[in-house]
Amino acid sequence: MKRVVFNNKFLPLLLLAPQLIITAIFFLWPAAQAIRQSFLREDAFGLRTEFVGIDNYTALFRSSEYLNSFSVTLIFTVSVTVVTMVFALLMAIAVDRLIKSEKVYTTLLIWPYAVAPAVAGILWWFIFNPSIGILPYVLRQVGINFNWIFDPTDAMIFVVIASAWSRISYSFLFFLAGLQSVPASLREAAAIDGAGPVKRFFTITLPLLSPTTFFLLVVNLVYAMFETFAVIDATTLGGPAQSTNILVYKVYQDGFVGQNLGSSAAQSVILMGIVIVLTVIQFRFVEKRVAY
Amino acid sequence: MASITLDNVGKVYPGGTRAIGDVNIDIADGEFIVLVGPSGCGKSTLLRMVAGLETITEGQIRIGDRVVNDVEPMDRDIAMVFQNYALYPHMSVRQNLAYGLKNRGTSKADIEKRVAEAAEILQIGPFLDRKPRALSGGQRQRVAMGRAIVREPAAFLFDEPLSNLDAKLRVTMRLEIKELQRRLGTTSIYVTHDQLEAMTLADRLVVLSAGKVEQIGTPLEVYRKPASTFVAGFIGSPAMNLIKASSVPHLPGTAHAGMIGIRPEDLTVSADGPIQMKVAAVEELGAQRLVHGHIGGDAATVTMASDATLSDDLNLTYRPGSLHLFHPETGKRID
Question: Domain ABC transmembrane type-1 spans what residues (chain A) (predicted)?
Fold first, then answer.
């Protein structure tokens, strides 16, 4: 390989500068601020700030509200991920079987991904609205009273659907590409080897999709934990009775609504830790364990 | 073990394109049949129709006494070796071999026994616990063969199984396939575009062109008596010279022929020979040389000893009885 050597030491720095500056100002500096702030406490009027060590953290783990938010997040994240991936896979399988209209369906199925989460939240807010929404109306006709404003379970179902909806598109694209990269001759060989369609899917196709599946699993977990803020904010606002108050939304509520900056910062730092762990898992395992 | 019969078999795609027409082949039990033809002639499609991977729109295919037109691939009792081997990449070699048996509910002990036998025959024992990606091309090829033989099917179907191997390995594997088939005595259909592979492997050749059977016969029959100008030009290397009869009007007994075929090795230089050739290029092969040129307006090749003298114009004579005559319109052989 031929390598071009630049003697100028400043040119590389100059070329990297825009990205480095953005990273520093919008990611590193706020992260550092959050860590610093998580050890401080400010009084109610913002006049005094004192160093309190890990008090903010210990207070969090003693707070039943915070622990509740943890379990809410767990249920919410797992539900969103499972709903997203199951539906995406089903649709990918359906589209993969099409020959002529495959492109049309693919294009149509990507559209929800282009809708901003906040807008998607509003759309679902209208659809699910207990007084004016179409869905509760239809459900009432069959005798189900769906009211997420009062019922914690209904609220959870509501935000899971609203969050998963636009995400299905994204996973669908990956699953479709994965399915199409499984050579037809493998399925044919399996067909000759005596495996029916269902067995073929579970013994040949699904194992070959495992790298895609694992990637989507991590990406969707991260999405459900962190990027669903807009959906929650546009719909339930974490209610009723904290039942949809996921960790990321609680950071915002405690910090910017409740003005408890120290606790909010400590929560951010914990979330940061979770992201780091998830990322490490992805990098460690996606290459080794799942590749065949 | 079973015979395979193709009875007026044809395939028309939904758009109306005809891929295969009117194919009649009777394959005896234990016979090695090679389907050969240029790319796009429909030979793979025909094989896949026997396998059950393509629908049959006309005629009947029978394996043994059973009509299999609407039988699923898994119930046809056949095994297929694919061009790209189609080994399951996430399974070890052992699992690859066992997969078909497991699906059919063979007992564990029996599976183990049969896998061990197949591994022994194909000498892939040392690789049984490896994944396919850790194998070389030739080893993968053996595993693909192994997957076919463990099932002890009524017939083997081969879809250009050697075309992904290098030239040297291809020759070795060709021999191995032949020996294996002899030993097991399993009816086999083998698809290739390589006429040399076809000649060396086949009990009988089926030469296909544009979805139609041009000729069926033993390799020697097809070589000695090609049924049409297509077969004449396709089988044999270097290819048979096909010369318009009008370019060599004075050859005896050729009055009613349109095309005259002469194999390059049947031509010799002779001062008073009746055929004139203009030499254009010479290829040295060591033991002999190939002289390319034109007879009349048609390209022609002559095989000569490497010490023969050359000139720009050659007078050639032919071995008696070596002329092949073809009909002016149909291109079919005239005897």
Answer: 70-282
CATH number of B239-334: 2.40.50.140
Domain ranges of chain B: 4-230, 239-334
Residue A182, chain B, CB below 8 Å: the answer is no
* Domain assignment present for A241: yes
| Contact assignment for A292 to B90 by CB distance below 8 Å | yes
Cβ–Cβ gap B86/A199 under 8 Å? no
Query: Token digits for A3?
Result: 């390598």
CB contact under 8 A, A204 and B88: yes
Q: Any residues with CB less than 8 A from the CB of B102 and at least 6 apart, and which?
A: B111
Chain B neighbors of A196, CB-CB under 8 A = 74
Q: Is B128 helix (H, G, I), strand (E, B) or coil?
A: coil
For residue A185, give how far its alpha carbon lies from the nearest alpha carbon of chain B (Å): 6
Beta carbons of B74 and A207 less than 8 Å apart: no
DSSP state of B321: T
User: What class has domain B4-230?
Assistant: alpha beta
User: b vs e for A125-159, b when ≥16 Cβ sit within 10 Å of the residue's Cβ?
Assistant: beebbbeebebbeebeeeeeebbbeebbebbbbbb
Instruction: Kindly tell me the burial class for residue A210, based on how many C-beta atoms sit within 10 Å of its own C-beta (0-12, 13-18, 19 or more).
Output: middle
CATH number at residue A156: 1.10.3720.10
Mean model confidence pLDDT for chain A: 86
- Judge residue B61's burial from the number of C-beta atoms within 10 Å of its C-beta, 0-12 exposed, 13-18 middle, 19 or more buried: buried
Contact B86/A191, CB-based, under 8 Å? no
> Is residue B85 helix, strand or coil?
coil
- Residues of chain B short of pLDDT 70, as ranges, are 1
Give the span between the Cα atoms of A275 and B5, in whole angstroms: 64
pLDDT digits (tens, 9 = 90+) for A182-232: 988 999 999 999 888 899 999 999 999 988 898 898 889 888 888 888 888
CA atoms within 13 A on the CB side of A7: 0
**Residue-wise DSSP of B169-187:** HHHHHHHHHHHHHHHHT-E
Tokens of A22: 């953005």
Q: Give A199→chain B minimum CA distance, Å.
A: 9
Burial (CB count within 10 angstroms: exposed 0-12, middle 13-18, buried 19+), residue A169: buried
User: Of the candidates B99, B96, B167, B170, which has an alpha carbon nearest to the alpha carbon of residue B135?
Assistant: B96
pTM of full prediction above 0.90: no
Query: Distance between CA atoms of B197 and B249, rounded to whole angstroms?
Result: 37
The residue among A188, A193, A201, A213 with the most chain B CBs within 10 A of its CB, best to mutate, is A193
Q: Give the ipTM.
A: 0.82
